[in-house]
Amino acid sequence: MTPTPLAAPDTVVLVAKGGGAPTVGPVRGAVVVGLVAIGAFFLLVGTVGLVRLPDIYNRMHATSKATTIGAASILLANTAYFGPRGAGLVSLVGIVFLFVTAPTGSHMISRAAQRMGVDFVGDVTWPAGDDGVDDPTEADAAEPVDD
Fold first, then answer.
1. For the residues of 13-59, what is the DSSP string, one character each?
2. The domain at 26-119 falls in which architecture?
3. If pLDDT is split at 50, 70 and 90, which confidence band does 118 have?
């Protein structure tokens, strides 16, 4: 019985011998598994915080901090698995993008909630500035601003 070829003779197959996946040693494999486990733990903690915490400010804190660390850990595991080129480099760029955008997005959501009048749970208040105004955009527009 003759084996059937996987592709026509003039077709280029882009799979390396052995299945195409990079070879991973025991230490590298342990690092990848550890980073994925850490990432999954932090993503789970962020999800529990989103469900359990009482107001938008606490929920936003839980999701932005925990999920940023969790997703970065999983992306770092991808870099450890594939190396610093190709998919690993894309993961490193994703980590940088994540660390730049997550705090900015959380801050914007917090400011929008404050300006909409969403209160904290309990007797917590926004800290007032030196002039007694907690939001600089609410200051009297007629007052000159010192540069």
1. P---TTSSPPP--HHHHHHHHHHHHHHHHHHHHHHHHHHH-SSHHHH
2. Orthogonal Bundle (1.10)
3. confident
